[in-house]
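W.,

You were right to be curious about this one. When I first looked at the sequence I had no strong expectations either way, so I just let the prediction run and decided to look at it fresh. Below is the sequence, 292 residues in total, followed by the output.
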Amino acid sequence: MGQYSIKELEKLSGIKAHTIRIWEKRHQIIEPNRTSTNIRYYSDADLKKIINVSLLNNHGVKISRIAEMDAVELNSKIQELTSQSTEHQVQIDALVLAMISLEEEKFEKTLSGMILRFGFEQTVVEILYPFLEKIGILWQTNQITPAQEHFISNLVRQKMMVAIDGLELPPKDSPKAVLFLPENELHEIGLLFYYYLAKKNGIRTYYLGQMVPHSNLKQVYDVHQPDFLILSLISPLSQDSIDRYTNSLANDFPNSMILISGSVINRAEKNKHKNIHYFRNALEIKEMLKIG
């Protein structure tokens, strides 16, 4: 069971802490628990309710009217709003609610509906990525359980693989890319999306996945001689480790354009190696994949 401070509730719901307190006092929307030292905290149920209340209030329903609703009516209104709205924040919050409750059918239905409505690429960039950023707040504050983490990762991964499998295989004479995560890197969702983008843009792809030893990467490189190496570096690394690793990539794979994403790009030394390029988003990598 999650336990949230009012500041965490503010970050996850988008509602200012001051507003939450007003809603508590005037309308009894939620009622916080208190620790033995009288510090207020909120439960998963409180978080779900405040997100639902926020969604309805942002779409013109007065807070006094929402306060009169029982749980059945509130949920009914939310389902109606989610199915009709094209606003991305509504869809993001719907995914958060499904994640908190471990409701696989609801998560699947919501995500599939968005893909049908907006297309896979737009759904990932404008809805799924912001959703994962919001979930990152839960990870950082230890408010998400291993079960919830695996639940989300597996469902998102399944969607990614279905989308990738649905693309045509580029011809054998197409440019080639090897996609991988280095040792100690486990954050695969972003790399899977780059896999999708590369294949969709006519690149013949070889996906190696997580925690690939450098020696194994060299073996694959020698066999396929790829035009691109695509990887993501998210795990915390010292500056020395970043420099050593990028140096080894540049020196060992001189004939490939090496495309790197992830938090490391904020500290990497740009323009040091002519064959290493850093990208921040889908638009940038798509432009880079047109080179060569």
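Here's what jumped out at me. The first strand starts at residue 33 and ends at 34. And, maybe more interesting for your project: The domain at 1-84 is CATH 1.10.1660.10 (Multidrug-efflux Transporter Regulator; Chain: A; Domain 2).

Coffee later to discuss?

I.
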